């Protein structure tokens, strides 16, 4: 029986190799004394563990910031960060903000007008006036 | 509900119309009878005269819409020429006339200054001397200030210098408090006298006593495993009571200061005595408990220096029976036990917690349970749920830029470079 080479089959991944969460770290800052941190303190006591367990890929740092408003700060793989002030917010509102930071790409917000965006070169190539059909009037 | 204006505040509309429509005399909402009377009785100052008044006074009169010197409220107390501060200065600087105008007095009546105004005038006190330099003045801050602000050493904390930490130690102290107070109750003495006994653990005879509450909790039986324990406990409290009363009697004659000093002497004597007792403590080889009685050098008072033996198999009452079930429903008993327990352990029990205490066991729980953390970081650090999550880190204090540099190992290089350039190594540590 002749030895046959292993046939290579192109994997159809639709351009996606693996999903990498863009948010790599979220910092939680609060104040022990101020009333604007009340919801944040409650969130850290009761809801933080669930959020951290559900998102093991995100590093979570909790540290006080005395006499300052409570904030969430998301750090992304592209080197950028996003900060959200959560003063006077309830724990349920803070969860929404955490999910927003988790799902964000880290890119600044831009208005998207075109439905498809690609970094690949066009299959058709760049248009040239010297090629293709010559039009004559 | 519709508001009905008070008659005293209501002013007829024609009152305003009677007034001249002058800018300086406009009285938009000054409706008190006193101001109206002043307006009519006195002449208004001319514009040139007005400029002699201080700016603050002119502004106040504009704000209130009243003539100069009639603005309600106190004058500017920081003005050096204010008559409130120094009447003499007002006279020297030609302000006398204004002062007369302001206070509503006439010429010659300025002597009738109220006692309050005189008290405020520091220039009249003979010992007052105005400082020309800052030498000799009291300074806020500095080493001398810190020394002066330290609490007086003559006041000592109620109880031991340090709180008991171990559960066994707290149980032992609590058992001792219960035994001492119950013995006093059997003797028909004042229960609070238990607090007069020394607090040193070496003199704990109560550990040889077993406390056995009845089933219904109404009565408590004391079983003495050391026959002389009851006598020694009573003697300890009695001797201290006598010396306390003697010290009190001396203190009454010599004042509070002497009383404090007397208590200090007594405490120091007790400490010396305890040291001596420690040295003469019987060895563990002796099976039976030896009793030593030692006379103190003092002629008037005799301290009991007998110490219980600490054999390895000695009976420890706090480890036996269900003494924690002793009810504290009797308020007098509860007060005495809690006071003595707080004195022996150094642990303060708050009033709301005392309200919830019904048995000795409740008291033990209240004393052993650590207080809730004051900081959120402490609370989170104690959380087992967060501790088992590998992706969560909790910091007890603010994470500073230096902390971030240290974490990546760059701070030592920065610090070395700053030192080499002779620059201050500062920052948010």
TrEMBL record, chain A:
Keywords: Mitochondrion, Ribonucleoprotein, Ribosomal protein. InterPro entries: Ribosomal_mL43 (IPR039927), Ribosomal_mL43/mS25/NADH_DH (IPR007741), Thioredoxin-like_sf (IPR036249). SUPFAM superfamilies: Thioredoxin-like. Coiled coil: none annotated. One of its GO terms (biological process) is mitochondrial translation. Residues 32-105 form the Ribosomal protein/NADH dehydrogenase domain. It holds the Pfam family L51_S25_CI-B8. Gene3D superfamilies: Glutaredoxin (3.40.30.10). GO terms for molecular function: structural constituent of ribosome. One of its GO terms (cellular component) is mitochondrial large ribosomal subunit. Belongs to the mitochondrion-specific ribosomal protein mL43 family. This is Large ribosomal subunit protein mL43. It comes from Lineolata rhizophorae.
UniProtKB/TrEMBL annotation, chain B:
It is found in: Mitochondrion. Keywords: Mitochondrion, Ribonucleoprotein, Ribosomal protein. Residues 18-130, 241-290 are annotated as: Disordered. InterPro entries: Ribosomal_m50 (IPR018305). Residues 35-60, 93-108 have a biased composition (Basic and acidic residues). One of its GO terms (cellular component) is ribonucleoprotein complex. It holds the Pfam family Ribosomal_L50. Belongs to the mitochondrion-specific ribosomal protein mL50 family. This is Large ribosomal subunit protein mL50.
